[in-house]
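Moderator note: this is an archived Q&A kept for reference. The question asked for a predicted structure of one protein chain; the sequence and the answer are reproduced below.
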Amino acid sequence: MTKRTLVLIATLGSAALLLGAWGFQHLGGLAPCKMCIWQRYPHGAAVVLGVLAFAFPGIRPLPLLGALAAATTAGIGFYHAGVEQGWWEGPSTCTSGDIGGLSAQELMDQIMSAPLVRCDDIPWEMLGISMAGWNALLSAGLVLIWVAAWRAR
């Protein structure tokens, strides 16, 4: 495949993942948690980098930066999937967290400032893999496509 074709595939891949996330949110009624939102920013960056790399194919580092953006969202997705599975703790502002030792006022403050959607809940899954897990897997595939585009002549 040509470099432009690979850039186009990688760019459309990130765009599709973003559109899918927005579709689940706005059409499916699944509100995103904080880490879900974090996963969207690198996809947005990858789309912008892809448009630039497609328009200016002579700027050699752009596909590599696209790979970095895809790797970033894959990493966040993997971390988020681990939080959902209970493999490790997530940010205290996004999960149930430890409330031991809090005063009544501190507990009330934490409750009132807590997000509506927890990061350690799995609102949707397919084949036993959550949306965060699917983002991690698909984004890892996009990393490979971006790297292939960077290596292509």
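Archived answer notes: The longest strand covers residues 125-126.
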